[in-house]
Amino acid sequence: MNKSRSKTISILLIAGIAISSLGSCSSTVTNQVNQNLPLPTTAETVSPGLKVISEVHVDTRLEDLTMTTPALSFPVSAYVLLPTNYNQNPTKRYPVIYVLHGGSPGPNTGLEYREWIDAGAIVQDTANLDVICVFPQAGSGGWYTNWFNNGKGGSPEWETFHVDQLVPYVDQTYRTISNRNGRALLGESMGGYGVMEYASRHPDLFGTAAAFSGAVDIGNPPEIAGPKASLIVGIMASGDGGTPTSPFGSFENNEIVWRNHDPADLVQNLKDTNLYLYCGNGTPGPLDTPETVSDFSKGIEQIVYESNLGFEEQLAAYHIPAFIDNYGAGTHSWPYWRRDLIDVLPRIMNDFKSTKPWPNQVTYTTADSSFSQWGYSVSFQRKVSEFATLSEAGESGFNLSGSGIAVVTTPTFYPPTSNHSVAVTAIVSNQHSSETQIVKSDSEGRLTVTINLGPSNSITEYSPGWSLKDTKVFQVKVTIK
Fold this sequence. Notes:
The chain has 481 residues and is α+β, with helices and mostly antiparallel strands. The chain has 9 helices and 20 strands.
């Protein structure tokens, strides 16, 4: 379960079970078995609406791209840093590190994506490494999310741009290793938050995540939770033309939105990800100079240190391994992040050598009403926002918890158009009620199962006035033979 979700789970008899072999979700499922599919032939195929309007070759390694996308109401930029010998090895493929920049309380200049090139010394540190680095713009306070905007959504949709559009574009345009073993996330400060947020929300895409002084638990400590959370986020979001509630809504009224983007609440999604956490405690340390020591650099590092401790507690609670370097004295400043970079790059490059397959069983928890992860496509019909969990999901079946009606489409596990016995079992106080039907896989080997979990809850989880008794969680076990 999610952080602070120690509710008593009420498991009630499901109202009914329906199973079908067809579903609208099936067309969006990615292929779990064949992770190295042929690269797409057009940008529109993989990144609808994304257009490169300018491409400047800064030098033999560095390209500066300017793009437009319906996800953003303004042009957006990204650097692409190629390996030194990229052009001399026309058939070689390379892993990719997506480098996420930090935020600032000032106005959005549109140039924040350049900070790791200008201040981070990453060009020199990767000169002898066979890796592509991508540095996307994310605003001065974009928070690596599709902004809530008072429930209306719309621009900026940073997560859509970065994950759904930029990653496929990079895989199409450059010679990449286009699976999770060949992708890593790295970032500092707000970018460190973005690293763990994207890793926890998209564990099937990114195999490694490294955060430097990141706000990796936005529900902890009090300085970045509750009313103060909206204030701090808002100070940064104002530089992008937003209000304190634009990115996630107000914490008081939209806590479910905050939690759905809090890596600490989504920590169980990270059990198959290589994790690296670096953070100081805000006390001036050995790399500090008069220029790096300020009330801001000390205070922010103290806050994110507490945030890291909260996140690390969640990792320990779920027995998720991670490399953790809480190095003590150190402020929120570049000398420490440059040192962190030098330390973590060999670790990431070693991770890229992995040839491990996708897990035999996966778990994914979210409050999204629909998701596609690990080759599964799941959508819910329910009245309110709440967390749901797909667990122990593999070729022989899966468990699902939540409420309302769920449609689950599996990966391409099965022979095309083959018949399978699908048993859906509801668990009620350790009693089981089961129904079995024969289901035919589609032409690509997917099965689609429609499940009536139980009556939809009527009160949004974590909303004002909500209590544990207001959310009933129904659980089913699906067995496929």
